[in-house]
Design a protein that fits this description.
Layout (H helix, E strand, L loop, with lengths): L2 H30 L2 E6 L7 E2 L5 E2 L1 H14 L5 E6 L1 H10 L4 E2 L7 H5 L3 E3 L4 E3 L1 E6 L13 E6 L4 H11 L4 E6 L2 H9 L5 E5 H8 L8 E3 L7 E3 L2 E3 L3 H20 L6 H7 L3 H6 L16 H8 L3 H8 L29
Helix pairs in contact: 1-8, 2-8, 2-11, 8-11
Length: about 350
């Protein structure tokens, strides 16, 4: 076989592989009739079931946004609770179509584990919670402390880096799940508990005596949390990525669940009209209907709405927007243009 023939066959095989990958997840999701979404087993504000098994949280709303984009029905999603240790295997194996589980975007995860992060749902950073009775006000006073955390996360490495940098000693108590780590801390097995700051606030209100505990001021890492899909499927990657961008853009354009229907009829803003499917063909290239973004905003809301009701002022956590505010309000949230 000559070199040209070998090259041609190789190119065709590669093209076939790429085409198959691109056609994969979205087609599978449409055939089974729902999005299988991997979420936390229980983190208030992000993904947690109530006593009837109904999930709520920012991460849950991302899953529902994807379902709204694909099916025009945000309820066509099923949730798989996963520990930090289980989450990547579940995604890589195809057990879930999408991982939306307060997961930090890192170089290794994005390049060496067959994963693709589609954006940032929540900009976070790792912190510490301690009992007020310890009488400390800074993480730099934790020399010799025992620290509870969940194994299989970025927190262990961040913990090591912080204590080494500051010349401090510590003992790590790494548990198999977040609930085990929290229970160990609450029972007095360790002096401090560490995870993302958002998780600390969610955890604190669920402790047996919340007022006995405080979150220390130090943030020791950058933790951009976002949805994850398998590598090699650019169509599904785009669907998930732009579902998140649609919610961010909707807030930027002043579109809400309450006014989006009227805005679809009356807006003269070309970008809004494209986004809502009034003009152009911006859903077809992704395998979606052209009103996919309208369906997301109508059924799930814009980014500000999901933030407020899950972790912001409209929730028990009452976390300030901070760096999760829109780009034009001093934050980092920003969506590319709809054109």
């Amino acid at each position: 076989m000559n070199k040209l023939s070998q090259f041609t066959i190789g190119a065709l095989l590669a093209l076939g592989t790429v085409t198959a990958a691109q056609a994969g997840t979205l087609d599978d999701v449409k055939k089974k009739g729902f999005v299988q979404c991997g979420v936390s087993a229980g983190l208030a504000g992000f993904s947690a079931p109530d006593d009837k098994g109904n999930y709520s949280g920012i991460d849950v709303d991302v899953c529902r946004a994807v379902a709204a984009a694909v099916f025009s029905d945000a309820t066509k999603v099923k949730f798989t609770p996963l520990t930090a240790k289980e989450r990547f295997t579940a995604l890589q194996s195809g057990e879930v179509d999408l991982l939306s589980r307060n997961t930090t975007w890192t170089l290794n995860r994005d390049t060496a584990q067959g994963l693709s992060f589609t954006g940032v749902t929540y900009y976070d950073g790792q912190g510490f919670m301690v009992r007020k009775s310890l009488g400390i006000t800074s993480a730099k006073q934790l020399d010799g402390a025992s620290i509870c955390t969940e194994t299989g996360t970025t927190t262990e490495l961040n913990l090591s880096d912080f204590f080494k940098t500051n010349g401090l000693k510590y003992t790590v108590v790494a548990l198999g799940s977040n609930s085990e780590a929290v229970a160990a801390y609450d029972s007095g097995r360790c002096d401090a508990y560490t995870t993302d700051a958002s998780g600390l606030y969610a955890t604190r209100i669920a402790l047996s005596k919340p007022d006995d505990h405080m979150v220390l001021p130090e943030i020791i890492s950058k933790e951009p949390l976002g949805p994850v899909v398998r590598q090699g499927d650019s169509q599904w990657f785009n669907v998930v990525k732009w579902s998140l961008f649609a919610m961010v853009a909707a807030e930027d354009y002043g579109l809400t669940a309450a006014n989006v229907e009227e805005q679809k009829k009356s807006s003269t803003n070309p970008e809004v009209r494209r986004m809502l499917g009034v003009e152009g063909e911006f859903g077809t290239p992704m395998g979606l209907s052209n009103d996919w973004a309208y369906q997301i905003v109508k059924q799930v809301g814009n980014y500000g709405e999901i933030f407020d009701r899950n972790v912001g002022e409209g929730s028990p956590l009452k976390i300030a927007r901070g760096i999760n505010a829109l780009w034009n309000k001093g934050g980092l949230q920003y969506a590319p243009p709809f054109r």
